[in-house]
Here is the input.
Amino acid sequence: MTGCEFCSHLPKVLQNDLAYAVYDIKPVSQGHTLIIPFRHVQRIFDVTPLEYKAMYDLMLEMEVLIQRDLSPDGYNIWANCGKVAGQQVMHAHLHLIPRYKGKAIHIMEHMQGNVV
Ligand SMILES: [Zn+2]
Here is the structure.
């Protein structure tokens, strides 16, 4: 889709036939990754089962890379659906957020400007 940040050529960390992974440009923790279907759909609910599988496969691959390089103590996996929920780019995506003992994350700052 013209003008969509996630439909443009972002530097990808990993990709497969239906989806790709990039590091978030405003990470809430080190290694914060976005998993994005290539096809432009606005809502995570509009992602097909095959696209979900592709996204899931990338999430597993990213977890291996992140664990190897950063050794986090846990993860959050989430999707923001709709502006009221903090979705900033209107192209469906999942957040994979490594968590580290003793380090809080500031979700509201990440969504700043999009809370309505
Ligand atoms: Zn898009």
In short: The first helix runs from residue 49 to 70. The chain has one domain: 5-110. The longest strand covers residues 94-99. The chain has two helices and five strands.
